[in-house]
From TrEMBL:
Pfam families: DUF3052 (PF11253). It comes from Actinokineospora auranticolor. This is DUF3052 family protein. Residues 117-142 are annotated as: Disordered.
């Protein structure tokens, strides 16, 4: 394993992505973290599904920037194909990067979309991740 590969596997671990998981990617653009995408694809053993996919997914990676529109609408769209115990990761540019989203903007959108925010992590040099789940799946894990 090359030195860079261990870091890639760590990102998939941080995101809680398991081998064989079905992962959908929404909001792809030229600025996304290709290392993160490669790590996830390597972990799941297949390509990421695009936003037009209509199968049930375990994880949604939602790349989100300040000027991308209404986050509540995007989250509602992301919930549609999500499995009951699925996870949405809102991936946003870090502070000081173009397109940075204030954490308070995410915190305000989450309950409106019927989701619960569980954690925030760094997923690369330029991106942060906010983990969202359905509140019912939070309750069943207690």
């Amino acid at each position: 394993m090359a030195a860079g590969d261990a870091g890639n596997a760590d990102v998939a671990d941080k995101l809680g992505i398991e081998t064989g998981a079905v992962v959908q990617e929404i909001g792809w653009d030229e600025d996304v973290d290709d290392d993160l995408r490669a790590a996830v694809e390597e972990r799941i053993g297949s390509d990421l599904l695009d936003e037009d996919a209509d199968e049930v997914v375990d994880v949604v990676l939602l790349w989100w920037r300040e000027d991308d529109g209404d986050l509540v609408d995007a989250l509602m769209d992301a919930i549609g194909p999500l499995a009951d115990d699925g996870t949405i990761w809102v991936l946003t540019p870090k502070t000081g990067r173009p397109g940075h989203v204030e954490p308070s903007d995410i915190a305000e959108a989450v309950p409106t979309a019927g989701l619960a925010q569980t954690s925030n992590i760094s997923v690369g040099p330029d991106w942060s991740g906010t983990r969202l789940v359905s509140p019912k799946s939070v309750k069943t894990k207690r």
